[in-house]
Amino acid sequence: MDGFHNRYAMSVLAVKRLTKSFGGLTAVNNVSFEVDEGAIVGLIGPNGAGKTTVFNLITGIYRPDQGEILFDRKPVVGLTTHRIVKMGVARTFQTIRLFQNLSVLENVLAGCHCRMRGGVLSSLFHTPMQRREEKKAIASAMAILGFVGLNQQVMQLAKNLSYGNQRLLEIARALATDPTLLILDEPAGGMNEQETTQLVTLIRNMRDQGITILLIEHDMSLVMRVCERIVVLEYGAKIAEGPPIEIKKDPRVIEAYLGTDASW
Q: Which pTM was predicted?
């Protein structure tokens, strides 16, 4: 498939002593972890634990007060979100952010365009280079839609898709940027059991295509099924890290989740 490559190495993402405060609230407090290339890593914790803030720091939406973020051994703190995407980091959001009045295909093409070399002038004058790139982008988008299982809905408007398929479309658009690291923020939110099972298969398939996965997810059964390593946050600090079988038994993690409906 165009754009997917095997790129296994060692650490693709290193988060070191990350701290971020908003006013008097420390949302992320001295958090460190690494994500090995080709791994599926979960970032979990109760509501308000700082998980999405960590994602926003990695993707350049926020700038940390302290700490380092290395992607492919290169520092990303201070870079724009667009530049970080071009380096190979893509993400989805907890709240779906699609172009609701564009087609499924057009939504994925929006992701492809960040990789196109033709500038404004070639687009305005519809140069041969621009036409070739557009043709290649459409072929790539169609391949990605087939990969996520949306090839029968390419001309539908995004707003007319089921909630689960809108989630898949967000993943497809992120894949169109040709990422090395894909960051998923609650991808199973709003999905039924059958859709969640399909998502587990998709996450594994993406990893098999050489894409490293870092995800936030409240569905603990999904996390335990799909993640090889889990990082646990509580009140902005890391309280545990390890394989699912250890995390499941960790007294600090159990205590953090007491009173929640997490089904492990």
A: 0.86
